[in-house]
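Example record for the data management plan.
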Amino acid sequence: MKKKIIIMLLIIMFFVTGCGKKNGNLVLVTEAGFAPYEYYSNGEIVGVDIDIAKKIAEYLDKELIIKDVAFDSIISEVKTEKSDIGAAGISFTEERQREVDFTISYSDSKQVVVVNTISGYRDISEIHKVAVQLGSVADTYLTENYPNIDIIREKKFLAAIQDLKDSKVEAVVMDELPATKLMTKEMEMLEEPLVVDSYGMIVRKGNKELLDACNKVIKELKESGEIDKYLLKHMGVEEKTNKGNGIKERFYNSVIYDGRYKYILEGLKNTIIIALGAVIIGI
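Corresponding structural encoding:
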């Protein structure tokens, strides 16, 4: 009898400790200073690459672990199997291809120049003052290639567009996707993009199983339009076309979306403190 009880207890312990466990870890190595692909928000690394990596980890039934290193250490981390996947807006080059395997491209970054319609500007070389999102591809590219341009760095694209509206800058340089969402009828996009780049993730050379899994997930995310949604989300642009008019949708957009409930709770806390103070003073 005692033997049966012990066996039953062991079985129960197995299910309690075993159920819900992930099948190991998936280690992603990145450099968290390349918004919107990877950056810190409230002490946590977030971004487009992180969202994609979470989906890959979910597909593989693994726990995602994120390592933040210098950009030039990423390939070494993957080659030496210290990390499974590398992602940091990594452009494909033949030199890198010799060291690691690339996934299919998941993002074509086309940085465009937005100006006022009546400005007459037709080339970035004519412009002296430009607004960009802080830490973005445009910020990095302009800093490295146009030292004579006065760069105004804003935390959000909305603020950069507002600078153009208020004539504080002569142009905004940003990714084409949010540009098409934020431009007004008084603005136009210059015909030639400033820079075009294509990004992929990297895995250890010959790790076909992981490479195939990454490609499968990325392909599905691209075809479903999820990656565009990730880009808009991390660029601070709301995709209005997806917003419904029902009670559920309105509640989500007003309370849940973008962590707005935090501000509501903070306001509620302050209101309670003020009310208690008023009661004490009244007494």
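Summary line stored alongside the record: Residues 14-18, 240-244 have pLDDT under 50 and may be disordered.
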